[in-house]
Amino acid sequence: LARTLEVMKQRGTHIVLGLRDVLDDPKQLRAEWKRKNAAAALEEYYDEVWVYGLPQICEPLAGMQLPASTQRKTTYTGYLQRFADSHTVSELPFVKRDEPFILVTPGGGGDGEELVDWVLRAYEADNSLPHRSVIVLGPFMQSDRRAEFIARADRLPKVEAITFDAHMESLMVKAIAVVAMGGYNTFCEILSFDKRALVVPRTEPRREQLIRASRAAELGLISMLRGDAERKADVMATALRHLPQQDLPSRSVVPGLMDGLENVNILTRRALEKRKSPLLARKRA
């Protein structure tokens, strides 16, 4: 992108770098950015840095030894709120309308096999779990593991497994709670729909999910199980049993938590106003 950014700069374009709330462990990130010369590019090309999160969760550039000028042009917007299509919420034929269920989602599914296996083992070991689970395996899960999980779920009266649903937001709206890995998009959905959530973060190849989930758990927004610990069936069964009784995220007051869209609009209007001013001046001249 270097040449493109250079041309845009020459044309007076206002350039913004958008970052998610957590990038990685600072030590790993420093090595990666040094290899890519990212800090110099950040200073040279970008007018602003917008972090789509809050410093109470994470400061993604902390410990990067960046110049004060970069820190001054960094703004935390808050998280980006998600919305469900109200017309699809009741159109989920595999979900019984009045029966509560826990939604289990490993995101795209490419790296969520261990989470799904852990939940299935919990139901296999404890048939007294009170709530059903709907597991959305994700479109990128390996076909053989997907087939295995569906076969195991078919043998469990309180578990249903599907490959994919185009209206995940609607599923989350209907769910009484969520079990997830804790990527940025899923985290935003959990907060947007104010869902009790159990997050099992991955730790490889990045520690992004672990950092986000650990801090969110400290703030009382979610509960967390370490995905790199011994995955005992009874531990997951206990967590699933208690999950519907845990506090909603909204019970933890974090100012500005979901103000991201509003603040991005404000920042965008501000940038456009700055760009209009010299254009209007030249026209009047």
> On the 0-100 scale, what is the average pLDDT?
90
Report the radius of gyration as a whole number of Å: 22 Å
Range of helix content: 40-55%
What is the beta-strand fraction? 5-15%
Number of strands: 9
Distance between termini?
Answer: 35 Å
Number of alpha- plus pi-helical segments: 11
Content-based structural category: alpha/beta
Which residue ranges are poorly predicted, with pLDDT under 50 across at least 5 consecutive positions?
none
Oligomeric state = single chain
Q: Write the H/E string, N to C.
A: HEHHEHEEHEHEHEHEHEHH
The biggest sheet amounts to:
6 strands, parallel
Short summary of the structure?
The chain has about 280 residues and is an alpha/beta fold. It has helices spanning about 1-10, 25-35, 40-45, 70, 115-125, 145-155, 170-175, 185-190, 210-220, 235-240, 260-285, and strands at about 15-20, 50, 75, 100-105, 130-135, 160, 175-180, 195-200, 225.
Description:
The chain has 285 residues and is α/β, with parallel strands linked by helices. The chain has eleven helices and nine strands. The strands form two sheets. It has a six-stranded parallel β-sheet, sandwiched between helices. The protein has a three-stranded parallel β-sheet with strand order 1-2-3.
Show the helix and strand layout:
Elements: H1 2-10, E1 16-20, H2 26-36, H3 38-45, E2 48-52, H4 68-72, E3 74-76, E4 101-105, H5 113-125, E5 132-136, H6 143-154, E6 159-162, H7 168-174, E7 177-180, H8 184-192, E8 196-199, H9 208-218, E9 223-224, H10 233-242, H11 260-284
Parallel strand pairs: 1-2, 2-3, 4-5, 4-7, 5-6, 7-8, 8-9
Helix pairs in contact: 5-6, 5-10
